[in-house]
Amino acid sequence: MIPSRWLDFLFPPSCHLCQAPLRNGRYLCSPCRETLPRVTSPLCTRCGLSFDGTQPDPASCPNCRDRSYAFDFARSALLARDGARELVHAFKYERRLHLHHELATLTAEALDDERLSATPPTEWTLVPVPLHWRRQQWRWFNQAHEIARELAKLRNLPLHRALRRTRFTTQQTLLTRGQRLQNLQGAFRLSRCEQRRQLLRGKAVLLIDDVFTTGSTANECARVLKEDGGVEKVVVLTALRG
Ligand SMILES: [Zn+2]
Ligand SMILES: [Zn+2]
Fold this sequence. Notes:
The protein is an alpha/beta fold. It folds into 2 domains: about 1-35, no CATH class; about 35-240, 3-Layer(aba) Sandwich (Rossmann fold), CATH 3.40.50. It contains 10 helices and 6 strands; from the N terminus they run H-H-E-H-H-H-E-H-H-E-H-E-H-E-H-E. It has helices at about 5-10, 30-35, 80-95, 100-110, 115, 135-140, 145-155, 175-185, 195-200, 215-225; strands at about 75-80, 125-130, 165, 190, 205-210, 235-240. Helix 10 links the parallel strand 5 (about 205-210) and strand 6. The termini are far apart. Bound molecules: zinc ion (ZN) (2 copies). One zinc ion binds near residues 44, 46, 47, 49 and 61.
């Protein structure tokens, strides 16, 4: 018996949401996985906000009104509520790192969006939203990078840590949109590695993060990738839509 199987034998894994016993390194049972709230049409073609069937005109999206984005569009897999929110919270704040595989598999569902499948998979490069080293030291890991790494394995896509966070920013959650933009100005730069920078020139990037809320962080990353890195196309792909 290999060591990981011994561990499963001694500490049988269970579903993170309902505690049903599981096998084969899984952490979500099928019923819990199937009932997670998906982002479905109709949705905003720019920021990916789900309209719940009540607001069919994308031009009237409350998040996008009077805004322009540096990214082409954003797409999330799950709505940030119920079990989906609980999964990301446990992963990120309770350091349940083993949930990265489940989250990446769920995020991969959003790749079936027809606007994404129009670009051949071989042309995409995954770039995770970076954390400042101080926050990463405190959290032990970068949640966006962990999801991107699993996604790269699942879909056989290249991954480049093409961005770095040069400024430590306060938590965005309590700020207004205007304050967020100010808080993020100059917070991201391209990687110092010339080879990584060259690999991205003229390419299509899938910018990976755990949550998309107002899009301010993604927008600033996309701006740097396009303006400084010569990236052709940036699509934001996240596990949750806040
Ligand atoms: Zn379950
Ligand atoms: Zn929108």
